[in-house]
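Morning run. Coffee first, then this:
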Amino acid sequence: MKPAQIQVNHPLSYRTFSFYQASYRQDPNQVHSVDLVVDAAGAPDTSASAARPHREAAPRQFKMPISLVVPGGEWVALPGTAYAVAIDTFFVDLRIDVTGPTLASDQPRNPAVRLRFAENGAPAGATWYFLHHPEMPVGSGPDVPLRVTGYTPLLATGLEMATHPGAGWIWAGFAVMTLGTLLAFLLRHERIWLRLRPAPAQDGSAGCEIALLHQGAARQAPEFVHESWEASVTPLAIRLFRELKPEAARPLRCPGAAAREEESA
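And here it is:
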């Protein structure tokens, strides 16, 4: 198995399967990394007895701010403290309901991250930090002067797999249909005219002489001519005439022939 790259409008074909990139967006429940600012000079007592739930009434003024990046799945030490933090939970739009923290939407309306604290390797609580409300962290972690200033989203792509076992037959059908359409417009169309004119029948009654004109085609060979009119038409016209020949050898009557017979009578 060798690696392959899938892009928009560039699917991966493997045997009878095709893999398409169906979507591409930010993962609303995961984050690549979180940007923090910690005050190394203003850190309070970091002993275990100082750890308590905290809610800041107003933002602190950091004396020695230090920027940190906490990648997902890694522990990062906080300068000036005995603590290290790691990302526990992330919501791009946090909402609190009766079941607890949930994802309200996939839009960054209220990004929030829950950081886990460890002191000398031992768990020291966890606290929610809100990007748009840095003054109100909520949780059981220590009272460390810490703020979340940003995050790098984790981009996720959705793949769609399709199988086409009869794709060859489908393309063959399209090819035949396209060829038929081209031939219908490119091939020359021939026309045949049927002409009727009055002519007396062998028994003396008023009849009709049928003439078939097939323009643009070769005439009937003289050695195959049996009647006078066959010399001016084609073999195809003769075959059509024989298909139109009246039953019981009764002659066809031309338009107006009956009226002329009545006048002569």
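The chain is about 15% helix and 40% strand. Good start to the day.
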